[in-house]
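Researcher: I need the complex structure. Ligand is 5-phospho-D-arabinohydroxamic acid. Inputs:
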Amino acid sequence: MDAFYLDPSAFPAWQAGAAAAAHRAERRWSDMRAFFAGQPADGADPVIYEVYTWPPQGAGSTDLDVSLTLLMAGRIGDEPFHTKGHFHHDPDGPEYVSVVSGEGLLERATRSGLVESVALRAGVQTLVPAGWAHRVLNPGPAPLAFVSIASRHVGHDYGGVRVAGWVRP
Ligand code: PAN
Ligand code: ZN
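Model: Output:
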């Protein structure tokens, strides 16, 4: 992977430049209805977050995923925009998180339903321990950008987060 610089003050330029080389995915409300209790008041379908992943999928046999999530500011009803949240299929696969810009909350949960929160702001480095589900919420007024690093093989289990009430049954 080439070196890249994330300039938190210049996201539009950054998105157009460095991010163009990454694999980009976006999540709109319609992609994750079951993860919100309500729906947008005006029938809109906002982009909730974007995920840029390096190296581009298929670029090699690496087992490392480096991704940057750009979680927009906004609410559905009184629920702040958040990621879906997931367990890793591999119970031995932890994840490193580094906050680039903005403020928010990392929630992590065990399969027995214990939920903990970590306050996020630019510069915070934290870990999701192996075996814990994780999601990020942005109750603030600005986009929240964070880098996460995990082994690619760990896989994402989105259904399991029912134990924490993050997705409707
Ligand atoms: C992150 C997440 C990313 C989007 O890269 O995949 O923030 O969140 P969801 O996958 O829950 O929609 C990560 O945790 N990777 O393992
Ligand atoms: Zn993860």
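Model: Summary of the prediction. The chain has one domain: 8-164.
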